[in-house]
Amino acid sequence: MTKELIINSHPQGVDIALLEDKILVELHSEKSDANFAVGDIYLGKVKKLIPGLNAAFLAVGFEKDAFLHYTDLSPYIKSILKFTQQSIHQKQNQVNDFAKFKVEPEIIKTGKINDVLGGKPNILVQILKEPIAAKGPRLSCELSLPGRFVVVTPFNDIVAVSRKIHSSEERKRLQKIVEAVKPKNLGVIVRTAAEGKNTAELHEDLLGLEKTWNTIQSNLRNAVAPSRILSEQGKTNSILRDLLNADFNKIVVNDKKIFAETKSYIQRIAPDKADIITLHNNNNTVFDSFGITKQVKASFGKTVNLPSGAYLIIEHTEALHVVDVNSGYKSVSNNQEQNALETNLEAAAEIARQLRLRDLGGIIVVDFIDMKLMENKKKLADAMEQFMLNDRAKHALVPISKFGLMQITRQRMRPEMNINTSELCPSCLGSGKISSTLILEDEIEKNLSYLIMQKHKGLTIEVHPILHTYLTSGFPSRRMKWSWKYKQRIKMKANNSFHMTEFKFFDETGEEIKL
């Protein structure tokens, strides 16, 4: 599988498209003024405690208070509160040695929020979910700093290795390396990408994250809640951090600044991949050059068509997303069961892609075409599992029910990607009605009269071909009547690109006259 990252910078922000074998599978949008992204760390102020929910609402600078549940408090919450206060009051140009920090005892899992945050203190928190609809951000006190090969979790000394590394020998090797180089009071989770990496690479990643933690400590000095302490690195770099591997063969950027930043980042984390990044300087937009704009238009919207002629209907309700699979006009065979299986397998591949592309979260219910044989239902469920292997969001599938429904839950961390694929009609502006030709004729003449009063000569009126025919046909035509009335020759020109009621005036030099 080949992977390509296409980055389109524009005044409002940056759009990032991930292609797998030339097919668009992820689309990210990062606004230039974006705040409260997943992973951002804030100094929050406890505003309200809700014992009934065992939760608290914190001010972090968003228009609505953020939500922090007791289960999202770190076991080391007492240490976080102590660290926060120490860092705020530390002396100028001083960064306390975190290895000497005395970790406080852990809290119990079944405790009460009032017992921990009863004094409504300032506290260091991390964005767990971005603001969605009318809800503020969701917070966590279980701080984590992700690197390329490891994730650092402060206030503990635990070393854990990803379960996706199946070799027990490799897991033991990685654990020994990390235990030997890890700083005190910083726990480490070894990521799947660390498989096969040597001590130097892991140590370099750890040192970078330790430096980031020291930056957090420095930024806390004299900080006043609410304030942002550390931003998650840009989406471009975070995607590269999580996905960059041997399959990546192209990164295209249309902005010189992002090109330089991305190239510098790749040279730091994977020098052997530095030559895969190129700067786009074609006349066409970067998304048009790689066919992304067309794929976006075809992939978003209520209806998604499949190559076989089958199609999906994707609808959103308050509680869940619903996907309906409809059979197409082509038949794979004369066997109805086989047709249903083939169509469902094709639909499953597209549904897995749509979940990633739109970043759909929560509960998704899929109504597949009915199949009678249990073995076919199992084939479909197994295939769906396979299609979703590349999905980085946590997800779970429930086997197909007797009603032919598959239930999927998928981690929801940010608002879903929603792009309007329909365009406003330029003629009626969405009303479904256009002006009468008779009224349009009067409007053209009114503007014509005004321009002649302004001493314009040699006028040409450019219109839609149908309107051109209407104004030039017959004897005397309407164009001829205008020429006689205003005592100068009026020219007419047809333009196929104009919408039905569009018209423009040009002077004798061919320059458009703005009305």
Distance between the termini: 55 Å
What is the CATH third-level topology name of the largest domain? Answer: OB fold (Dihydrolipoamide Acetyltransferase, E2P)
**In total, how many beta strands?**
25
Shape: globular
CATH homologous superfamily of the largest domain? Nucleic acid-binding proteins
- Gyration radius, to the nearest Å? 31 Å
Q: Which blocks of ≥5 consecutive residues have pLDDT under 50? A: none
Mean pLDDT, nearest integer? 85
Describe the structure.
- This protein is α+β, with helices and mostly antiparallel strands and about 525 residues long.
- The chain has four domains: about 5-35 and about 235-295, Nucleotidyltransferase, domain 5; about 40-230, OB fold (Dihydrolipoamide Acetyltransferase, E2P) (Beta Barrel); about 300-410, Aminopeptidase, CATH 3.40.630; about 435-515.
- The protein has helices at about 75-90, 115, 170-180, 200-220, 235-245, 255-270, 285-290, 290-300, 335-360, 375-385, 435-455, 465-470, 480-485, and strands spanning about 5-10, 15-20, 25-30, 40-50, 55-60, 65-70, 120-130, 140, 145, 150-155, 160, 185-190, 225-230, 250-255, 275-280, 305, 310-315, 320-325, 360-365, 395-400, 405-410, 460-465, 490-495, 505, 510-515.
- The strands form five sheets. Strands 4, 5, 6, 7, 8 and 13 form a six-stranded antiparallel beta sheet that branches.
- α3 (about 170-180) packs across α4 (about 200-220), α5 runs parallel beside α6 and α9 (about 335-360) runs parallel beside α10 (about 375-385).
- The model has no long low-confidence stretch (mean pLDDT about 85).
